[in-house]
Design goal:
By secondary structure, this protein is of the alpha/beta class. It has 17 helices and 16 strands. Strands 3-4-6-8-7-9-10-13-14-15-16 form an 11-stranded mixed sheet, with helices on both faces. A 3-stranded mixed sheet has the order 1-2-5, with no helix packed on it. A two-stranded parallel sheet has the order 11-12. The longest helix is centred in the last third of the chain and has 26 residues.
Length: 552
């Protein structure tokens, strides 16, 4: 799987180095020196080479891709990073965005947090800048409130050793990344506010276009991949005019699109987001007769997080995500599901899927009464409630949470994956009343991850596939003995993901065939104890969800 490396002779290296200097291009990665120093558009950086299974990997951590979004730059689009001239050692990760404290396992630890958080990490197996390897850019999850690109579970060393350049990024989270407010919109040249975290992701992708060639990557072969909020981000970027041309393939792992026809949402209108922002500001104790924005920007991040916690809805499904992308008419021309239904998305290959037990992690330990369950079902399904209750029957109190979990898994996650795959594989629009001619069809590949690691009682839970994608299944050793099937599945999944990043098709190298998605066949690939194709994944639930969305 590892792409074949090559070395230039000393004479050719000298000639090439001189040519690059004269051309004003990056002088990184030439000859025997490898990638000891890479020239970015902002200045030179140095990293470190480490051994990995399959070969050595150059690692650069904590590279700034934008100016610190602090002071007057808080709640502003990311600005270019200040340049430097002396080599900058990039051997330790930058801080994560301020976020609520998490009591998680070590491999989910985000480390230090600081408002100065716009950093990224690069892993490259290239021996020279001329290798032009495929590039995979990871966007982390965490409900747009938590997470970091530097978490141990996202360590890119083993994945990169298989022949790709891996990039992981931080972006602004919570009220720092997604707060909308009328005054913030007024001061904006575009008249909008709220999508600062998505703008950070776009800035990082622009950085990749400008600089990744210096690390041996091909800027014309960039794949974005992400999970949960990262997958939602990718589905949003696919319908954003600001992201067009910045990546060429997309992998969305366990994302949800619920913002049209449902009583819950993973995106908000600008008006609704601004109202939510005004509510948060009320909890900050701002003197509204004075400089409101100045006072808002003077608040410490901890004060913002405290205010956010005070207004956060305690109900899991009442309003969906607390902090979410905004359909502002600029970055997102409309609510994402409407854009997807209209076919107004990029026409690039898409690999998308879910895990078999997504809902279990969110509902673990939750107590729900029969009345609460039925009320929530009516909130989500409206006129289709009776059909939904028949699909998810509850006879005893012990049935409620399992039924709720299945509904969240199938209607929230699986239907989103099928909806996006249908849209991508179908030219034009899916919705009966959707406007717009729609984009051209593009290949889509649908999967379901079913492996239950270490016999975990939560099953194939939300996020369980991530260590397999990164080759980090060893992290599960904290839960019990790792089995050979876990290593085999990880190797297979890395192969699928890398071949997709290379060519837009995950098939090859003797792996079980992954059928391209088409609505008529409704086929997917199961990734579990066995890897095998399947048909009609939760079709009844997906059909119901499509009717709620108003689709054909």
């Amino acid at each position: 799987m590892r792409l074949r490396r090559w070395k230039m002779s000393g004479l050719i290296a000298v000639v090439m180095l001189a040519a690059l200097v004269l051309a004003g291009l990056s002088t990184a990665g030439c000859g025997e020196a490898g990638l000891e120093q890479v020239q970015l558009d902002s200045g030179p950086v140095t990293g470190a080479k480490e051994e990995a299974d399959g070969g050595d990997v150059w690692i650069f951590k904590g590279i700034p891709y934008a100016s610190p979004p602090v002071g007057d730059l808080r709640w502003k689009p990311p600005q270019p990073v200040a340049s430097w001239t002396e080599p900058r050692a990039c051997t330790s990760s930058g801080s994560a965005c301020p976020q609520p404290a998490q009591t998680e396992m070590f491999y989910l630890d985000v480390g230090t947090t600081d408002e100065d958080c716009l950093y990224l990490n690069v892993w490259s197996p290239a021996e020279s800048a001329e290798e032009q390897l495929p590039v995979m850019v990871w966007i982390h999850g965490g409900s747009f409130e938590t997470g970091s690109g530097s978490m141990a579970v996202y360590d890119g060393q083993k994945l990169a050793a298989e022949g790709v350049v891996v990039v992981t990024i931080n972006y602004r989270l919570g009220p720092l990344g997604f707060l909308a407010h009328p005054l913030l919109s007024t001061e904006s040249a575009e008249g909008v506010s709220g999508n600062y975290g998505l703008l950070d992701q776009i800035a990082a992708l622009r950085w990749v276009q400008k600089n990744i060639a210096g690390f041996g990557g091909d800027p014309g072969k960039v794949t974005v991949f992400g999970e949960s909020a990262g997958a939602i981000s990718i589905l949003d970027l696919l319908v954003s005019p600001l992201a067009e041309g910045l990546f060429h393939r997309a992998v969305a792992q366990s994302g949800i699109l619920l913002d049209s026809g449902f009583g819950v949402s993973t995106a908000a209108s600008l008006e609704a987001a601004e109202k939510a922002g005004e509510t948060l500001v009320e909890h900050l104790g701002i003197d509204e007769s004075g400089d409101v924005l100045g006072q808002m920007r003077a608040k410490a991040p901890e004060e913002l997080l405290t205010a956010a916690a005070a207004v956060q809805d305690s109900s899991l499904m009442e309003q969906g995500l607390t902090w979410k992308p905004v359909a502002d008419g600029y970055l997102l021309p409309d609510l994402p599901t409407k854009l997807w239904a209209a076919g107004l998305r990029q026409s690039i290959p898409l690999l998308i899927g879910t895990n078999a037990d997504e809902g279990n992690m969110f509902l673990s330990g939750l107590t729900v009464s029969q009345e609460e369950f039925e009320a929530q079902m009516r909130n989500v399904f409206g006129e289709y409630t009776e059909e939904a209750l028949a699909l998810y029957p509850v006879e005893t109190a012990g049935d409620i949470v399992p039924a709720f979990s299945r509904m969240l898994t199938e209607v929230g996650f699986v239907s989103t994956a099928r909806f996006a795959a249908r849209s991508m594989s179908s030219p034009g629009s899916l919705g009966e009343s959707a406007a717009g001619a729609g984009a051209q069809a593009a290949p889509a590949y649908l999967y379901q991850f079913t492996r239950v690691p270490m016999k975990n009682p939560l099953g194939a839970f939300h996020g369980a596939e991530i260590p397999y994608v990164f080759g980090n299944a060893d992290l599960f050793s904290a839960l019990g003995a790792i089995e050979q099937v876990d290593y085999d599945l990880s190797t297979a999944m890395m192969g699928y993901w890398i071949r997709f990043a290379t060519s837009g098709d995950p098939n090859g190298e003797g792996a079980p065939a992954w059928p391209q998605y088409d609505p008529a066949g409704d086929r997917h690939l199961e990734l579990g104890d066995a890897i095998k194709p399947g048909v009609g994944l939760h079709r009844e639930a997906c059909d119901l969800a499509d009717r709620v969305r108003g689709l054909k």
